Amino acid sequence: MSHTVESPGSATVPASVPPSPLRTASWARIRELFALDPTTVHLNTGTVGAMPYEVLDTVDRVTRQWTGGLLDVYRPAMFTEYRAFIGRTFGVDEDEIVICHNATEGVARVIHGLDLRAGDEVVTTTHECYSVLSNFNLLRNRHGIVMRTVTPPSGHDVRAEEIIDLVESAITPRTKVLSFAAITLFTGTMFPVRQLCELAHRHGLTTVIDGALIPGMLDVNLRDYGADFITCSGSKFQCGPLGTGLIYVRNKVVPESNPLPLPTFWPLISTWYPMMGSPPPRTTNEVASYNMGDYLQSAGSANLARGAALTRAFELWDDIGRDRIERYVMDLAEYARGRLIEAFGEKAMYSPGVDPRLRSPLIAFNPFRRPEDAWNIKKFITFVKRLETEHRIWTRWTEFDVPGSPHQHYAARITTHLFNTRDEIDHSVRTMVRLAEEMS
Ligand SMILES: Cc1ncc(COP(=O)(O)O)c(C=O)c1O
């Protein structure tokens, strides 16, 4: 990295430095780090988080450093140190991490880089983000692949085995790819990622995981999931700048995590891919034969502040403690789930609650008394809008298929994060109860 650009702190921090005071700071103190509007309640991190002031400052500072100088913008745009730093947080190497523009771009670059031909089948679910389904559908229209989509069960009582059995039932001898979200955005279901990847290994499938909601929420080792590709957002739970995302691309064979050979992959949008001839064959062991991360990262000039600011957000999370953040976020979600069930009943819940493996901090529910209101889109739009404009509570509504239902269902969705509090949940649930009554 050029001497004029800041590098991730811990790359230069000696091992003897004591842990950051943030490691034991109160959640009230941690909340002060964020550029939150004190008059609003932000329960929509599943869409976009709130940036810490330090991240905002980094965007500004690094943008200024690179303005009007005579600096080489191409080499730093490889984000080598930032990728190494972020990779370490997730237990993977620099050659397996790419800083891209968002989850949508990341997954599109993966899907269109797969070596799929007419008749090849992709197993996925109807609960995937539009960014996933539209790109596979484009491949269907363009190349004649076949999409086999299943509709996952929703509701308080769903168990992980139901999801695994359903996915398995869609796999045929022509299936080449299994794709699903680690945490779904519509019902907030935490998919059993490792078990589904093991299922994929048994059937020789390439796995494409939409992990948009993983960074900043879960303290995980990405390699341990056993997937081939995981695409992430940097601006949701990780609270980096808008326009940041990550691609994890498996670039070596570590049999304990995934024993399958590396899939053929075409790195789209690359100025590193050879201009003549072919790259070396992909490795069959734990030593990479080339840096696939560089192939994808090298994509012309870049906004250099993005890499620095996203890395600053990662450093802050490491200082606070990712394990601690995950626990807080999940505990607060359980508190919120309890309050929502008290207020609206178990039957109103679309998110899993009984099986702890499937719970996430995204909770979707029907706040209206009449079950048929669940397919009244106008009510949901109005409910979310009124929460926002009259009560300054920011949520969202979602729409999704429900097995056996002729209609799409709609739900209100809240998300808990490290800057939210129990008081905010109490206040929001009380407000939602009143508003739903008024609208019933
Ligand atoms: C699970 C999931 N995947 C993908 C996306 C797309 O993210 P982005 O619009 O930031 O690219 C979202 C957005 O909410 C999401 O929740």
From TrEMBL:
<feature type="region of interest" description="Disordered">
    <location>
        <begin position="1"/>
        <end position="21"/>
    </location>
</feature>
<protein>
    <submittedName>
        <fullName>Aminotransferase</fullName>
    </submittedName>
</protein>
<dbReference type="InterPro" id="IPR000192">
    <property type="entry name" value="Aminotrans_V_dom"/>
</dbReference>
<feature type="domain" description="Aminotransferase class V">
    <location>
        <begin position="79"/>
        <end position="352"/>
    </location>
</feature>
<dbReference type="InterPro" id="IPR015421">
    <property type="entry name" value="PyrdxlP-dep_Trfase_major"/>
</dbReference>
<keyword id="KW-0663">Pyridoxal phosphate</keyword>
<keyword id="KW-0808">Transferase</keyword>
<dbReference type="InterPro" id="IPR015424">
    <property type="entry name" value="PyrdxlP-dep_Trfase"/>
</dbReference>
<dbReference type="GO" id="GO:0008483">
    <property type="term" value="F:transaminase activity"/>
</dbReference>
<keyword id="KW-0032">Aminotransferase</keyword>
<dbReference type="InterPro" id="IPR015422">
    <property type="entry name" value="PyrdxlP-dep_Trfase_small"/>
</dbReference>
<dbReference type="Pfam" id="PF00266">
    <property type="entry name" value="Aminotran_5"/>
</dbReference>
